[in-house]
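User: Structure please.
Assistant: Input sequence and predicted structure:
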Amino acid sequence: MSKLTLGAHPYLLGFEQLERLVERTAKTAAEGYPPFNIEAVAENAYRITLAVAGFDEDDLAITVEDRQLVIRGRQGDDDTGRVFLHRGIAARAFQRSFVLAEGVEVAGATMENGLLHLDLHRSVPDAVVQTIKIGRKVGEKS
């Protein structure tokens, strides 16, 4: 018995990359830092909020690479000579990724009270009905 994958289903034509997308998404979901929320703020608008306490805007980089939203954080070295008796606030570097659907774009990003907000908007394409003309092979009689 052979295994039927999503990309090989006979009714899903052109979705060969779907399985790779699901695998890539599953890998990024295993990350635990920093914590985040995703909310629908309107019918075609979303907001991702990451808790980035201790990070400044200059410590963060936001990019979109191959339909993947990537947020990276790296704090500068603290050379003030402080001695911590307890250090419970994470200061480690991180990378958090989100796969974006076709038509979803990052509208902007803001920082507020240690939270990084990324606003996303989905463009809804116009419905297109295409009529396909049936032709005859060359050399066939009418």
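The longest strand covers residues 104-112.
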